[in-house]
Amino acid sequence: FDVTVLVSAAGFAAYSGFLWWRWGDPLLFSTVQKYWNQSSGPVTVLKLHLAGIIVLKPAQRWLYILGCLLQGGLSVGAVLLVPRIRKVFGWGDASLVLVSLAIPLVGSKDFQGLGRYLLAAFPVFAWAGSWLRERPTRTRRAVLVVSALLLLTWSHLYARGYYVA
Question: SS3 of 134, please?
């Protein structure tokens, strides 16, 4: 049995114990989600908050919707790559991607902010690089150009004060 698993479980137990001692709720990190309109349940799991914005306010919230759908699509795509990542890099990297993304995918009300979890799932980028290496030069250049344009676009929006996280 790997001692690091025990150490991580002990850390979680110690933190929960502290929360229980200090505030009387060992799962306070989950309880406070309701104050961010991010409570657990079917509304969050089924992304009904995002669906409501798409249906009721598409013109006013188009940039928010676009950002949420982009992050959600990329994150779901990364989870779907887990079998390929396992085949190329092994179970450890595949597990890292799955755990890094599955929990936030289920716990997010609208996919907002999932991009930062995707950054931690580095085996996805390693797999994409190995896949891209086998593609023709024209494809590699097209990916580079599209990536550069996206970087410039999102950087411009951020610099103008738009929330793009």
Answer: coil
3-state secondary structure of 135: coil
Regions of the chain short of the pLDDT cut 50: none
Q: How far is CA 139 from CA 13, 85, 136, in A?
A: 49, 21, 5
pLDDT of the residue at 40? 77
Cα–Cα distance list, 137 to 71, 129, 144 (Å): 27, 13, 11
Distance CA 49, CA 60 (A): 15
The C-alpha atoms of residue 33 and residue 16 are separated, in whole angstroms, by 16
Alpha carbon distance 77, 97 (integer Å): 11
Of 124, 20, 126, nearest to 80 (Cα)? 124
